[in-house]
Amino acid sequence: MLLTWRIRAGKIDLFGWQFCGNVGPVIHALWSQEWSAGDKDNVLSETGMAGLPKRTRDFVSQLLAQRLSRGSPEDMSASQSIDSLRGATPLVLPSLLQCDFANLEREVRTLEDAGIRALHLDVMDGNFVPNLSYGMPIVAALRKVTKLPLDVHLMIEKPERYLKQFAEAGSDLITFHVEAVADAQPLVNEIHSLGVKAGIALNPATPLGTLDAYLGAVDLILVMSVPAGFGGQKFHDVALDKLQTLNTQKQTGQLRPEVILEVDGGVNTSTIGRCAQAGAQWFVVGSAIFGQASYRPAVEQLTQLARL
Ligand SMILES: O=C(CO)[C@H](O)[C@H](O)COP(=O)(O)O
């Protein structure tokens, strides 16, 4: 639902309901910052909303909760939604491979409440990797129930066949594997022409040098710390060397500083700190979130351990 309101001289008109006095600055504070649904406590303390009468506060909270979690994806372009996360590192992205697909929307709400800022979607085709997961329909279904940025990781052969469909399904960032293509540049160009950010991934056994020709073009580099295909595998230390090299390349100007370094596979409380030290900014986590009874403490602990 897209809410419309007008703010005039501290007076708010929400669907014809009028609020005066303190509500104006509160709405302004709420709206001028990118909040996630998991930021509820911060919203209360930082916007002055706590000072409003309870009835008004409940009403505004209800409307804003709907807006924050289910707002129209047209509000921000795919590219803008990824750009808006640049200052939010370290960022833990749950890999939905291991979520409860019978209750997908409920899982998304729980993750939003846990403070998650973006979702990582693992697309597997049974060819490029020996496992099958899901495709465009799940991306489109998620797009309908959340405005969280969708980071789509294609573990498929011939990814060029599906870029447009994944973009149209609502992806904000599309990553494909360097091992799956002869030349990555046309795919990066096409992803950009679709208004989406482009990432490139490489498996633990693939030398970092295979990315050299594309470092100037991509928005994100996904360093796999397990061979792509399955959750729950053991972390490969070779990922740390690659992250360290990429991080050094950023510092020496060989890689644009805004390129996001993401790590995926076996990231947990024992490995996340080393990934952060090596230069990772985005951390894809499956088992270490979905294997826990409660997501919020798991996400908070992982985020804390990734802070340098
Ligand atoms: O891309 C993946 C597998 O190819 C998954 O994102 C990854 O394995 C996450 O799961 P876990 O944290 O359990 O390793």
Can I get a quick summary?
The protein is an alpha/beta fold. It has twelve helices and eleven strands. Helix 8 links the parallel strand 7 and strand 8.
List the helices and strands and how they pair.
Layout: E1 5-8, E2 11-14, E3 17-19, H1 23-31, H2 40-47, H3 54-70, H4 78-83, E4 91-94, H5 104-113, E5 119-124, H6 136-145, E6 150-155, H7 163-169, E7 173-177, H8 185-193, E8 197-202, E9 220-224, H9 238-251, E10 260-264, H10 272-278, E11 282-285, H11 287-290, H12 295-306
Parallel strand pairs: 4-11, 5-6, 6-7, 7-8, 8-9, 9-10, 10-11
Antiparallel strand pairs: 1-2, 2-3
Residues 95, 97, 122, 153, 226, 228-233, 264-267, 284-288 line the site of ribulose-5-phosphate (5RP).
Question: Any overview of this molecule?
Answer:
- The chain is α/β, with parallel strands linked by helices and 308 residues long.
- The protein folds into two domains: 5-71, no CATH class; 75-306, TIM Barrel (Alpha-Beta Barrel), CATH 3.20.20.
- 37% of the residues lie in helices and 17% in strands.
- The chain is built from twelve helices and eleven strands.
- The chain has helices at 23-31, 40-47, 54-70, 78-83, 104-113, 136-145, 163-169, 185-193, 238-251, 272-278, 287-290, 295-306, and strands at residues 5-8, 11-14, 17-19, 91-94, 119-124, 150-155, 173-177, 197-202, 220-224, 260-264, 282-285.
- The chain has an eight-stranded parallel beta sheet.
- Residues 1-18 and 69-73 have low confidence and may be disordered.
- Bound molecules: ribulose-5-phosphate.
- The site of ribulose-5-phosphate has 20 residues, from strand 11 and helix 11.
